[in-house]
Amino acid sequence: MTTITIKGMSCNHCVMAVTKALEEIGAIKNVRVDLKKGEATFDKAGPVDMDTIREQIKKAGYEVGE
Ligand SMILES: [Cu+2]
Predict the structure, then answer these.
(1) How many A from CA of 60 to the centre of ligand 1?
(2) Count of CB atoms within 10 A of residue 41's CB?
(3) Based on CB atoms within 10 Å of each CB, which residue in 5, 18, 53, 64 is the most buried?
(4) Distance 27 CA to ligand 1 centre (A)
(5) 40 C-alpha vs ligand 1 centroid, how far in Å?
């Protein structure tokens, strides 16, 4: 399981948008987004490039923290 920090989420709509953005990346499964913690966790079903994740999140209007 991988956990990343997502910056900029403020409501359930943001959670849905981030979840969808991550699920669109083919090799990512079981996405769970924690609004309070500002975190997203997921499983990798194959190799996933961190830059791809960053881009996807950015396109949705949020930012991946360090
Ligand atoms: Cu929102």
Answers:
(1) 11
(2) 15
(3) 18
(4) 25
(5) 15
Rounded to whole angstroms, the Cα distance separating 31 from 15 reads: 10
Dump pLDDT digits (tens) for 8-19: 999 999 999 999
Task: State the distance between the two ends of the chain, measured CA to CA, in whole angstroms.
Answer: 17
Query: Measured in angstroms, how far is the CA atom of residue 9 from the centroid of ligand 1?
Result: 6
- C-alpha 52/C-alpha 13 separation (Å) is 22
User: In percent, how much of the chain has pLDDT > 90?
Assistant: 98
Residue ranges of domains in the chain, CATH in brackets: 2-64 (3.30.70.100)
Tell me how far the alpha carbon of residue 45 lies from the centroid of ligand 1, in angstroms.
28
- Look at the pTM and tell me if it is higher than 0.90: yes
